[in-house]
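Before going further, learn to read the protein records used in this course. A complete example follows; check for yourself that the lines match position by position.
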Amino acid sequence: DANNTDYVLHLSKIAKASVQTQMAFENDLTVFNIENSVNIKANHADHLLSQVSIYDLSGKLITEQSNVSVEAGNTASIDISSLAKGMYIVNVTDQSGNRISKKIIR
C-alpha cells in the first residue's frame, strides 16, 4: 500500500575527530584586530571559512561575510572602519562547523 510507508531516520554523532579538528582549527587560526580591520591569519593550513560574523555585546549581528578564504601564511582582513568604537564579538566558522569566538575592541 502506497499510503503505508515506513521512514527511517539515521542520526550520527561526530565523536573525537570533531574535538581534534576543533583544536587544530583554534591552534592554526589567529583572530586579531588592528585599527580599522579584523584580521584572520592562517598559520599552517588553508581554510575556507563559511562565515565570519561580528556581533555587538547585546548579541546583535553587525556584519558578516561568507566564504572567506585564508591561505596558509596569509591573513584575510575585514573592514570595520564603519563600526562605532566599542567591544565586539567575532565568530569565525569553517565548513566543518568548527568555530572560534574572539572579543575585540574597536
About this structure: Residues 13 and 81 are 41 Å apart (CA to CA). The longest strand covers residues 47-56. Residues 13-17 have pLDDT under 50 and may be disordered. The first helix runs from residue 16 to 28.
